[in-house]
Amino acid sequence: TEYNRATEKLFKVIIIGDPGVGKTSFIRRYVQNAFRGDYKATIGVDFALKIVRWSENQTIKLQLWDIAGQERFTWMTRVYYKEAQGCIIMFDLTSRNSFKNAVKWKKDVDSKCFLEDGAPVPCMLLANKCDLQQREVDQWEIETLCREHGFIGWTETSAKDDLMVGDCMRFLIEIMMKYN
Ligand code: GDP
Ligand code: MG
User: What compartments host this protein (predicted)?
Assistant: First the structure.
């Protein structure tokens, strides 16, 4: 009988953005399919591992780095970003400030971290908390920022209602598979 050796890939993905935008909630939803309303700030960095059965003979391990957005930790980001193959920059649709800061986070990543061939790390922009009504950011503004700052794409998400969480991660994995 034929023996098919399963292949396994490991990707490091960093998740960044201002405090409170929903990074930890997003990861918890993606990895554990759970959500909590109470807010406990991440200190430093948390790790989560998600194993994805990509195809019959391809397994993907995602090492998710949940990085605290506090100003006092930003000097550490170079260490956290090291050898990341994918990046998620998240903002909160109900916080205009967190949207503006998405550009700062993108510049921070692009100045400190590159793929092996020197290309920028593929970065996806996530507009979280789309379940809430009181939006402070329009779609066309997101579209423009996404294009002008070299994101691979963007989507609205809700960690609370589980909207687009798995879908956007699949999109990122597809791109990381092409690059690696
Ligand atoms: P982090 O600091 O970026 O890790 O943000 P957290 O994941 O700790 O979330 C901050 C707060 O926003 C918490 O109270 C969450 O329950 C809430 N939150 C996170 N994601 C969503 C979402 O998609 N919708 C709503 N309504 N609240 C969310
Ligand atoms: Mg957190």
Answer: Membrane
